[in-house]
Amino acid sequence: MSVIEPLHRLLPFEETALSGSVSLHATAARRKRGLTFFFRLRGENPDALSQLELGTLKDRPARRRQDGLWQRTCLEVFMAVPGGAGYVELNVSPTGDWNLYGFDDYRRGMHRIEASAPEVDRSDTEGEVSWRIDMEQAGTAPEPAALLSARHLSLSLTAVLASTDGARAYLALAHCGEKPDFHIRESFIITL
Question: What is the pLDDT of residues 23-54, one digit of tens each?
Fold first, then answer.
C-alpha cells in the first residue's frame, strides 16, 4: 500500500491513557476520478493496538453500509465546498463497513447519500495499521459526485478510537468546540 504524503497528526480532544498509547496520522489527495484518504495508526507500546477495537478487514462482498459506526472505532472524513452551508460525512469502520451522510447545515438536514461503497484497503504490520480509502466519483448520486469534482474542497480528517474496555478517544486535525464535535466547519482545515 503506497503512503500519501504529507501525513497530518490527528490530535486527541483530551489526553487519556488510550490517546497516549497510540498516534494517528492521516491525509487526503485528489485523484482523476475521486478522492483518496489515508490513515496510519501506530502503537506507542507493543500492546497498544491489541487494546483497540479494530477487527479485521472483511472481504468486499461482506462489507455493509451501516449506521452508528462512530459508536466504535471509526475513521471519518468531513467534506464541504468552501462558502456553502452543506457538507458530507464519510464513516468507515476498520472492517470496511461504511456510510455516507449529507447535511444541509451544521448538524441539520441529515440524509443518507446514495453512493457506491468506497474501496478500502488495509495493511497490518508490527505495531501499525494503515487504511487507504478511495472514494470514486463514478457510481455516486449527484450530491457527492458534485462535491468530489468541485474545484476546491475543505476537509476534516477525524477518528473515534474505541478500546476493548469501552474507553474512547476522539481525534481530529483541529478541535474547535468545548466538547468533541467533528461537525464544526472551522475544523475543516485541509484545502484540496
Answer: 999 999 988 778 899 999 999 887 899 999 99
Q: What is the CA radius of gyration of the chain?
A: 16
CA distance 180 to 169: 9
**Residue carrying the nine cell digits 458530507:** 88
**Torsion, CA 152, CA 114, CA 134, CA 145, rounded to 10:** -30
Distance CA 3, CA 14 (A): 28
Q: Measure CA 39 to chain center.
A: 8
| Strand, helix or coil for residue 61 | helix
What does DSSP assign to residue 173? S
Q: Where do the DSSP E strands lie in the chain?
A: 8-12, 22-31, 34-43, 74-80, 87-92, 98-103, 111-112, 119-125, 128-136, 154-162, 168-172, 190-191
What is the torsion angle, in degrees rounded to the nearest 10, for the CA atoms of residue 150, residue 140, residue 25 and residue 131? -150
To the nearest 5 percent, what fractions of the chain are helix, strand and coil?
10, 45, 45
pLDDT in tens, 110-154: 999 888 899 999 999 999 999 999 987 655 554 555 666 667 889
The two most distant CA atoms of the chain are separated, in Å, by 45
180, three cell numbers? 468533541
Question: CB–CB of 7/39 below 8 Å?
Answer: no
- Report field, pTM of the whole predicted structure over 0.90: yes
